[in-house]
C-alpha cells in the first residue's frame, strides 16, 4: 500500500511534466492565427488599395465626364451663331430691282420704261458690329459709264458717279460704312443688254440703312431683245421683258 501511494503521485508528476511539453501545438495554432491575421491585414491593405484605385478610377471617370462637356464644343452651335448672323441680313436677302418695259417690245431693241426702284432697308444685327456680307447679284441690264471710284472690270464699281445722262443706273448705297456700289459699269454705252453675275463682299454696320436704286433718266430702256435668261432666277426659264437684278445673301461674318 505504501508503494502504491508513492507511484500515483509520481505518475501525476509525469503527467504534469507532459502537459508542459505540449505547448508547441498551441504555439503552432497561435502562429497560424498571427499569420492569418497578418494575411488578413494584407487583405485589408489590398482592399484599401483596391478601394483607393476604385475611388481614383471613379474620380478620373468623372473627369472624363467633364471631357464629355467638350461636347459643348459641339456648341457647333457656332452653326447656330451663323444662322443668327444670316438673320441680320434678312431685310436685304432676295431683293429685286425690276425695270420692266411698259409693254412687250417684241424684237425691238428698246422700249418705254416708266419704272423706278428706290427702296431703303434697315440692316439687322448690333450697331457695335460691322458685318461682312457676301452677296450674289444676277440679272440682265444695259450698260452705263461711271467716273471715279474703282471698277473690277466686270461691270461692278465701288464709289464714283454716273457719267451718262440717258442710260440706266443700278446701285446699292450703305450708310455705314458709307459707300455706293454700281452694278452695270461699262467702259462704253450702246444699245446692248448683258447678263451680270457678281459675288461681292460688302461691309455693313448693324442698324445701317441700305438703299437700292434703279432709274432710267430718259424713260427709254434697252429691251431684252436677245431674250437672255438667267438660270435659276425667276422668271427663268422665260426671259424677263425688260431689265432686272436679284440679290441673294450668300454668307455673313463679323469683321475682325
UniProtKB/TrEMBL annotation:
Composition bias, Gly residues: 61-80
Position of the signal peptide: 1-21
Keywords assigned: Signal
Biased composition (Low complexity): 22-37, 44-60
Region of interest called Disordered, as start-end residue ranges on this chain: 22-81
Protein name: Secreted protein
Taxonomic source organism: Sorangium cellulosum (strain So ce56)
